[in-house]
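Format notes (please read before filing issues)

Several people have asked whether sequences and structure tokens are stored in separate files. They are not. Every record keeps both together, in the order shown below: the sequence lines, then the token lines. Line labels are part of the format and must not be stripped during preprocessing.
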Amino acid sequence: MTNKLYMKIGKILKENKFILSIILIMLLNFIEFPYYINAPGGIVNLDKKIVIDNEYKSKGTLNMAYVTEYRANIFTLLYAYLNPNFDIYKAEDYLAPSDTYETMSYRDSLELENALDNAIILGYTKAGEKVDVKSNDMYVTYIYSEADTDIEIKDKIVKINEEDVYDLKSVKNIIGKYDVGEKLDIEVTNDNKTYHRYAYIKEEDGFKYVGIYITQDKEYDVERNIKLKFKNNESGPSGGLMLTLEIYNELTSDDITHGKKIVGTGTIDEDGNVGVIGGVKYKLKAAVKNKADIFLVPVDENYEEAMEEKDKNNYKIEIIPISTLDEALEYLNNLTY
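Then the structure lines:
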């Protein structure tokens, strides 16, 4: 009886081996490994993503570069091992301590919103357009391992020790009033409920902090309507500089592209400072692959990494280090056709 059963099963498997192979491949595709894979991505033409009423058109393009990221399965892992342009990272090295892929995705999504807010406000202001900032909410998007607090990710900070907070500067000013080791009462809202959290003040190199990362979300009005056409997966703050430049260029009659394909990367804060980013070599590869003329990159380690990659691969592209929005505009305004 048992032998007949085995024979019957064997016959079924033999007759349906193609279908079973497909099912097995599909199942393997869903099995994730504790690794992440980074690979050269592409560029995004920001003129197609940003539409402003009565905007000026340019002869060239301003583009932001991105990194392609994969969660590893058996197929992507094998391909990455064989491809020198792909890098494999252990999950514990790729994700910060106490972080998860979900919290990282939440932070990246909110960081994109913050980058867009900063870009719009800076771009409009620099172009001489009126901007009316109505509100500025602050959300906790990361908690450092050294923090002594019960604050949770997605908490919106409302008050610290009964003082209203309006922006990051007000948070720093309030913390600066108290001594290291003091316990702060932090009023937050989360999922439409109000909570009182605590956090102890710490200090490093003379800087007082509580060990949380805050991302701002602003509400504002502008006179010339602007529409953004970004997908949900186009997240992260590293496009801040290029977003600001594109918005400024659409608002002003002078074309800062001068007919060139310009690719760049770098965060931007509300004061116009350009910050470092990750994945520079992948973004440079994307710029080169898409035949860009110029690659704008944050100064210091990002610029050094980009130049090392350029020299190693003999890339024919001009790489420009940028530290502020004004510096980027000065360079672009001095380009010629």
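For reference, the curators noted about this record: The two ends are 85 Å apart (CA to CA). The chain has two domains: 35-129+223-333, 135-216.
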